[in-house]
Amino acid sequence: MRLDRLRLAAAALLSLLGARAVPLTAQTSQRTSAATELAGVSYTIRVGGPPRVGSGLIAALAAPPAHYVANAVYAAGRGRLDIVDGGVESVFAKGDYVLFDSTDLVIVHPATHEFVPLAHDATDSKMGQMQAMGLTLTIGDIKVTLDSVPGRDTVASYATRHFRMTTAFTMTIAANLMQQRLATESVTDYWVATVPGLPGNPLLQANGFSGTPVSTDMFKDLAARVDSAAALMGPTVALKTSTSSRLMQGPGSIVQMQQTSEVSDLEHVEVDPNRLVLPAAFAEGTLPGMSATPGADAGAKWRRAPR
């Protein structure tokens, strides 16, 4: 049981590394009318990465990298991501779509008429459950730097500035007499630009942890340092990212992961607000290992048009 608890905590840390690759952030919604089309932006995004490399317990816990192509629209503070190829194991696949706003995501499975909500505090809940099981988790040795990389590249027809953020920290996990220390380092390159209509898009915002599903108090210091450094990138969106992460449990247990994303075919378009609404008849489902909140209608706000 003790070892299982340590495995749960290690898996949570791996989830944190994945979330860091595409930061989310808070935004202010615009007021719109559901009766008319909305001024918005459309684009294609490609996310991928090579198979993870590693050995030991940590490598056994690591999920395969996300690998998908999606068409997206974004307007009035809400977006929709239609998966046209690939997917994320046990989360979404071709034919599914994701609705998102500044705080939450909902994964929609049209084939089964189901939706799965993923609130921004999902990791908070998971960490709380582990602590209730007798785990003590602490973060230390935090290092965060942001550097400007010379040169300019064009991505999706926009001239971008190149930044590199390096984040490192250790996590100590204790369960009764057992203790495990994990170390991680993540290096993310951002190619950012100012794009009218997109600064509020939380899936492309390039300014740190704010509003992400990893806002738990345990990561408060880390999140503050990341947000402070990333603020130097200003109100930009990340049109291209490349993240390399290493998680080390010891000399014989290490996992290395890489993840990239790139936007293309970016256009300013009119968006049908009905595309940003959850169908009324769809029922709530859950991700593996998660449970629904009793008595709560997680789909309520998604059945209303954005405003």
Please give a structural write-up:
15% of the residues lie in helices and 46% in strands. It has 4 helices and 14 strands. It has helices spanning 2-20, 56-61, 122-132, 220-230; strands spanning 38-48, 53-55, 67-75, 78-88, 92-93, 97-100, 104-109, 114-119, 135-155, 158-175, 178-193, 237-250, 253-271, 283-284. Strands 1, 2, 3, 4, 5, 6, 7, 8, 9, 10, 11, 12, 13 and 14 form a 14-stranded mixed sheet that branches. The termini are far apart.
Keywords:
307 residues, alpha+beta, 14-stranded mixed β-sheet, 4 helices, 14 strands, disordered N terminus
Low-confidence stretches: 1-34, 210-215
Helix content: 10-25%
Query: Largest sheet, described in full?
Result: 14 strands, mixed
Terminal residue distance: 48 Å
Shape: globular
- Can you write the helix and strand succession as a string? HEEHEEEEEEHEEEHEEE
**Structural class of the secondary elements?**
alpha+beta
- Work out the number of β strands: 14
Continuous helix count:
4
Instruction: Tell me the fraction of residues in β-strands, as a range.
Output: over 45%
- Radius of gyration (CA) equals 19 Å
Mean pLDDT across residues:
78
